[in-house]
Amino acid sequence: MSPPVSDLPDTFTTRDARARGVHPRDLYRWRDEGLVVELSRGVFRGAGAPAATYPDFLAISYRAPRAVICCVSAAAAYDLTDELPGAVQFAVPSRDRPPRIVYPPTEVFRFDAATFEIGLSAIEAAPGEPVRIYDPARTVVDLMRLRHRLGEPLAHAALHRYLRRPDARPTELLRTAARLDVLGPMRTALDVASAR
Question: How far apart are CA 60 and CA 159, in angstroms?
Answer without folding.
Answer: 26
